[in-house]
Task: structure prediction
Amino acid sequence: MRKIRGAAFISLDGVIQGPGGVGEDTTGGFEAGGWVFRLWDDAAGEEVDRLFGHDYDLLLGRRTYDIFAAYWPYVEGEAAVMGEAFTAANKYVLTRGDAPLGWDNSIRLGGIADVAALKRQDGPDLVIQGSSTLYPPLLAAGMIDQLTLMIFPVVLGKGKRLFGEGSVPSLLELVAYRASAKGTIIATYQQRGDLPPMPDFAPPASTSEREAERQKAMKRGEW
Result:
């Protein structure tokens, strides 16, 4: 059985949009593209090398696939080695659309059930890059075996979040972490399941009339 390993560059306020280039993803008026390289250091580079330092297949959302397909097959210079590796790797694309996948070794997946079937097969680990739309359904299904977040010390204010619409409450266990010289925290998590029940020492709910009125106001959307 394969493992699914996610890795994301993320800001302190949870944004993962457009880390790699100025024009990578400007949807929603995002203007901070390329932010990750303003704070790049050896620790982040070492983590990327570790992520891709063995056999892997890529698991991508459609927009991240389009970004990759327009860049990596054509890149030159030192980055051409990574471009050749990404082109050679199988790229599984989770998409509801039927637009052509023109990059070599690209395979369409129609839904989470297809991902689950792929995960049950023998083969290299599936590595997620970017692809914010993949995390909520995969986490909800308990299918993320490892999640590494490279948390950069920057607040971006707007942009696509890693845990966006559709995310469900769940518990993660920290299994490894380090901090870089520039303040980037590299933390690796595994899924542990649902949130635990409230402990006995949790503070009791208020029974005051004022709290009762506040609760009513929340239900009416007035608070």
Summary: The chain has six helices and eight strands. The CA atoms of residues 173 and 190 lie 5 Å apart.
